[in-house]
Amino acid sequence: MLLALLLAFFAITSGALLTYLFDPQAKLESRLCAGACIGFALLGLVGFSFASLAGSLTPLTILLTVGVLATPSLLLRRKDMRGQVQFDLNDAGVRLRRAASLRDRRTTVNVILSLGILLLLWLVFKQACFERGGDIYTGIDNNLGDLPFHMGTISGFLRGENYPPEHTEYAGARLTYPFLIDFVAAMFARAGASLREAMLLENVVLAFALFGVMKRWAEKVTGDVRVALVAVCLVLLSGGLGWWMLWSSIEADGQGLLHTLMNLPRNYTITTNLYRWGNSLTVLFVPQRSLLLGLPLFLVVATLWWQVIAGDKEEVKREKEKGKKAGKKGRAAKISEDVSDFAPPRFPVPKLDERRMIAAGAIAGLMPLAHAHGFAVLMMVAACLALLFRQWRLWIIFFFVASTLALPQVFWVTRGSAMRAESFFVLEYGWDHRQTNILRFWFVNTGFFIPLLFAALLWRMKGGAPLISRRLLLYYLPFTLCFLIPNIVKLAPWVWDNIKVIFYWYVASAPVVALLLVHLWKRKNLWRVVACALFISLVLAGALDVWRVITGNGEQKIFDRNGIAFSQVIEDATRPRSRVLHAPAHNHPALLSGRRSLMGYQGHLWTHGIDYQGREADIKRIYAGSADAAALLAKYRVDYVVISPLERGLMRANENFFSQYQKVGESGGYRLYKIARP
Fold it and tell me: Where are the domains of the chain?
């Protein structure tokens, strides 16, 4: 585990060093958060390239990757760069000492809040996958189907030599799912972490990095750290009006509020019927792991866009205003009495804007294999912003760099894909509202969020000045397409997956809504009560779902000890690139072996746009021992067949037929047969 921690730290520091090329005003904590997502993406892309060339993930491929990622350290050869790094380290040390001594209340609150968020994220992600008594559990309902898929994908990279990657649950088809985050977890596992530890390390680091980059982005676009903190809470504790169901839970429990809270019987942000929005932590960030890498990368790019659009002069002016409020003349003067004479170097503004757009393009180019939906949203928003803010030369730089890096990845991952194009891009109105009136559906699922969003956009302060500046309004407008388009067009076979696009609208809208809530709070008296009531209504349902996870009331078993032991039997008895036939269950232990499944869970394949019905029918014939079973085994080049309680129950396996083949492994009711092929 120690080597995995060192690898993660190395990736984070490498990414943080790169931020000095395009973001000279950032503080150390912002650099580390941006560096975490940039560094992990680079770690995955570079490592995957070396592993693909070698055909496996070995210690040598990790060493070569570390060598490439060490190149940002060459920046420290420059004296001014070393001075900037030293300045940031000293600055961070001073602020931490002030926070500890309670000399700076705002800094103290920020540190306490950050530590609280870190603890919250660790408690949630610790429940995403854990072991008890030799069994593997998840404490999050919506992770029941996704966790085995991701564990299978990671195991394929780690144990199955899955290069170039085939779909873990549909052998022979190219893996088009954004797999970069799973490959990074495989690298941590190769460095000594267990599968569970690798995912926990990656999840917590990226989730906390997301908190940091989201906070900085929201503070940049609104100019108020309080607004940024409220916006982060709105995103992390997102939900709708499902908290209303708590009263029925209390009545059903009959033992009072406290007992119900410690034994919450259900989710309050997502159900099978009316409530479909869910909470971002429990419904998106944990099960949809690729979003944990894609969203922070997106926000780093969005921050760079804003810095270019708003202009560096405005950024410097804002820093000076903050310094004056603290009784000083700027950031450097503010801490000069406590630190050495290092000062941040001055960069020419035009060149800085160019570097920012080059960096934005380069980071965007990392996204296709990290989060395909996020990359599509990013390029759409960039095109709209280019039309609204006509700094053509800078936008051309962005699109050129992004396209140069991204298009080869897009071509590579889609070439020979098994996805059916006709299962995407179908007209379907109202997202997942089903039979519910669409206006009622969105109000129930997001509460007062949309009404507050409209109110914020129309609000006028004293003197008639708008609450939302014209620049911020224009910057925000393209994100509304992330809401409008998925409410008209189905962008995936399962319409609920449109949330992978809609959520970017929600994240972009959160600072706007937070700006109004903070403005109401500033008006004091009754307005403060209104602001508090609205804020609580927006986060209470999400908080209940998160609390339910933390208290362990959503625990479900994924793999039992017999299945886990059998996965080791498969790994020991088969070659890494073997093709295994087993029942199409979402939690089949064969996934843990890293071997290629002829066909896995139908729900996964359907949502990935794969036409599996023909293969499914053939698999049923094989397990039935039909006359053409042997021919079908040869057709699909099956190396091994599993007979277990899952096959006996789901497929009604004809065990007499398979007794003609050599049994090469057995454990706890699970049997593995080797298929001899001519």
Answer: 1-132+174-554, 560-674
